[in-house]
Amino acid sequence: MEQLKVLVETSSRHVHVTKEDLKTLFGDGAVLHNKRALSQPGQFLSEEKVRLEGPKRAIDNVSILGPERSATQAEVSLTDARTLGITAPVRESGNVAGSAPLRIVGPAGSIEISEGAIVAKRHIHITPEDAAKYGLSDKELVSVKVEGERSLTFDEVVVRVSEKFATAMHVDTDEANAAGLSGTVYGIVSK
Questions:
Q1: Which uninterrupted H or E stretch holds 11?
Q2: 0.90 cut: is pTM over it?
Q3: Which end of the chain is more exposed for a tag (fewer CB within 10 A), N or C?
Q4: Contact, 47 vs 98, CB < 8 A?
């Protein structure tokens, strides 16, 4: 079977917010303003930014990704978690039960989330058609090799299949830096 050559994108720290939390952070009538479309259909980088505050330090100018979600969460790198002074578990996006608490500050107010700070598990978004073509299934774990001066194989990459996705792999900034990734990069998927 043909091996999948997948686009590997770096996902920087960001926040997903509920409509209610957006109102608290940015005031009545607040909406997310689309600054740039992301590779996943319907997803965008907004112009709105917040401050993340942990028990140790804070990180300013953290982007909010749109559209609004059903739960507020912050996705940070392990380096960011250490900077903030939190223990953020490695999880799939949306799996925030028992994750780290965090304070999120906007220009109009702040919120305290009792859980919701995670380090996103490296993953591949894939369409059902591509999954079938390459013999991959939802929640399967695969490896992805990237070439270059700091060639690296990422293991334990979770496959996420949905008709709402465009096929692309996401790693965080720590992982991208370890592999020396920049610009347009592709990786080869193996089981």
A1: strand 5-11
A2: yes
A3: N
A4: no
Give, for all 191 residues of the chain, the pLDDT tens digit: 679 999 999 999 999 999 999 999 999 999 999 999 999 999 999 999 999 999 999 999 999 999 999 999 999 999 999 999 999 999 999 999 999 999 999 999 999 999 999 999 999 999 999 999 999 999 999 999 999 899 999 999 999 999 999 999 999 999 999 999 999 999 999 99
Residue 12 token pair: 């920087």
Quick count: other Cβ atoms within 10 Å of Cβ 71?
Answer: 13
Note if the bond before 89 is cis, omega within 30 degrees. Answer: no
- Coil, helix or strand at residue 108: coil
